């Protein structure tokens, strides 16, 4: 599984334009339920992207976006402040501040010195993309290698469920049948008759 460091954008750099009906005060009140830490990057990413797409602000996450020029020449050839640039900078700063407020204190040190939304977003994607892939591989291998051994039935079921929950936290949802298969694979031969009855049944079993 790969994680792009860029949001979905066209290949060519885009000149940014403002969204007149967007109120930057949104960021002072809008909170997401997941604060980014070492264990929930994909859940955090999903919620953040949904909020950003709602207000069509994806361009601020793309380092290829070209901001408007900071000044414009007036009729007399004098440089004047460009209101489009001021608006762009205001929106980008508000979004950057909001992104920083959505990460845990353990993540913030990795983002020191970054003051644009694109810098923050791409740094987080780079930091957690490879980590998440490694976690997915570890949890999936662990799920299918569990064995009951001396564990009670309750303990082995809880252990397997724990790995399913860990995979779900990485946005890798385990199907009901894969969950049941992992349980069957972990049981010793004396449970073969029970497994045969369950697999032959026309009534679907749930966990």
From TrEMBL:
Pfam families given in the database record: Retrotran_gag_2 (PF14223)
PANTHER family per the UniProt record, alphabetical: CCHC-TYPE DOMAIN-CONTAINING PROTEIN, PTHR47481
Name assigned to this protein: Retrotransposon Copia-like N-terminal domain-containing protein
């Amino acid at each position: 599984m790969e994680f792009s460091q860029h949001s979905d954008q066209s290949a060519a750099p885009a000149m940014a334009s403002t969204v007149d009906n967007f109120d930057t005060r949104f960021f002072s009140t809008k909170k997401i339920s997941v604060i980014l830490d070492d264990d929930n990057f994909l859940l955090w990413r999903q919620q953040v992207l949904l909020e950003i797409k709602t207000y069509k602000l994806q361009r601020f996450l793309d380092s290829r976006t070209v901001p408007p020029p900071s000044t414009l020449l007036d009729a007399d050839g004098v440089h004047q402040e460009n209101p489009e640039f001021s608006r762009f900078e205001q929106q980008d700063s508000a979004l950057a501040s909001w992104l920083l407020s959505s990460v845990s204190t353990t993540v913030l040190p990795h983002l020191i010195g970054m003051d644009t939304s694109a810098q923050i977003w791409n740094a987080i994607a780079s930091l957690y993309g490879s980590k998440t892939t490694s976690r997915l591989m570890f949890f999936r291998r662990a799920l299918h290698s569990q064995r009951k051994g001396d564990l009670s039935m309750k303990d082995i079921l809880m252990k397997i469920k724990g790995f399913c929950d860990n995979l779900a936290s990485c946005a890798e949802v385990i199907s009901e049948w894969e969950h049941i298969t992992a349980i069957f694979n972990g049981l010793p031969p004396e449970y073969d008759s029970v497994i045969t009855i369950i697999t032959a049944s026309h009534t679907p079993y749930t966990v």
